[in-house]
Amino acid sequence: MSDRKEIFIDDLAKPVHTDMQKMAIEFGEQMEFELTPESIMEETKMMTGLDDFGPMDFVGRLKVLCEAWDGDEALSGVGRMSLRNKLVQHVSSRLLIQDQFNRHPEILDIEIEKPIIVAGLPRSGTTHLLNLMAADSRLRALPLWESYEPVPRIGESPHPGEEGYQVENDPRYKRCDESWQMMQQVAPLLAVMHPMNPEHIHEELELMGPNIGSYNYEWLAHTPAWRDYYYAEDQTPHYEYMKNILKLLTWQQRDSGAPTRWVLKCPQHLEQLPVLHKVFPDATIVITHRDPVSVIQSAITMLAYGQRMNRKQPNIDELSEYWCERIEHLLRACAEDRPNLPESQSIDVPFHELIADDLGTVEKIYAKAGMEMSEDAKVELQQFLDQHSNDEHGKIRYDLKKQFGIDPVELSKRFDFYFEQFPVKKVFK
């Protein structure tokens, strides 16, 4: 029996703000700044001392986001500030990344060989599976702090490659930790729904950010304009850009003895399987499967909770309608493209089987990827499980009918095509 505290959020539609949230909202309303490509690019040039952005096609994508967010009158001051900060982070990283490519063109000659890549709906066990495999010291994973800032700022120390380098002393790690501490104060239930501590293993789609790509921006704000732009755009260049940053990260630790075989994950891959396989032709692709209704109720609860800070008034009807459609789009693309993946390089992982036997699941994945489940690996993975077996923050209780006015049984019928094709345990019958 679990002794975790159960938490039910009963004010999603009409938030009751904490004193800390009220202070943050008031502060955000007092802030004024430009949300334009020009202002962001100018600020990042001043931050980094660099001015070579590389190919300039990213500016058009940046303009789409800036215009959409600048014209969204429902965004709060905190929301606008957070979104602009994210773009500044991405564009400044672009400058630093391009500087490294200019200085060290040999980086692009590095091979990213036989990565293990997890694709699955958000909230479907992908995070647990990724973090579990990342505990295997034979694999290279992407911690959150490094995904946010792949390249150290010029002149900052310590940085990878320096003698005696310790991750916790890296300024990038410290900045990420400071943000996480603040986030826990302002939005404490995020620690329950989506931990964002610096060492948490993150999605590689963050590495598409400096190219202003990926569906990640849809999670940051209600942005149909970006969704439509993303749908119409070939994602291959963004995946290739992300792969080049993986090469850069591998190169940065070239003398440290760090592993070079990557383990990655991102839900976006579900609707980009042909692109994923094209860019990573020797990858082992792991696809997790969970009842989409369980996924939706978890995802929209998390997003609705975040709206108490980033929007003047939460719009849970708009949010639920958007993400029901979005999840369906991901799954229909997966249903169409999954049969075309090589059997020798792909494996399906039902959520209920992963939860019942996560070590056994990893062993099956390793067998598909040509890796042995060594005794050392078993020890490392079991240590991870032992250290993460209890959730000290509690457990969220979800209720689609009560919180969003959605009948989960009726919603489930929308995904009959998915249940018929994949080994998914249906929760709502």
What does this structure look like?
The protein is mainly alpha-helical and 429 residues long. The chain is built from 20 helices and six strands. The strands form two sheets. It has a four-stranded parallel β-sheet with strand order 3-2-4-5. Strands 1-6 form a two-stranded parallel ribbon.
Determine the fraction of residues in helical runs and give it as a percent range. 40-55%
Name of the level-1 CATH class? Alpha Beta
Let me know the number of strands: 6
Number of helices: 20
Measured on Cα atoms, how large is the radius of gyration?
21 Å
Low-confidence stretches: none
The SSE string, one letter per element, is EHHHHEHHHHHHHEHEHHEHHHEHHH
Q: What is CATH's topology name? A: Rossmann fold
Strand proportion, as a percent range, falls in 5-15%
As for the number of domains, it is 1
Q: Can you tell me the CATH superfamily?
A: P-loop containing nucleotide triphosphate hydrolases
Biggest β-sheet strands, sense, barrel = 4 strands, parallel
Task: State the end-to-end distance.
Answer: 25 Å
Can you list the strand order of the major beta sheet?
Answer: 3-2-4-5
| Shape summary | globular
Residue-averaged pLDDT, rounded? Answer: 94
CATH architecture: 3-Layer(aba) Sandwich
Q: Structural class, from helix and strand content?
A: mainly alpha
Would you summarize the structure shown here?
With 429 residues, this protein is mainly alpha-helical. It has 20 helices and six strands. The chain has a four-stranded parallel β-sheet with strand order 3-2-4-5.
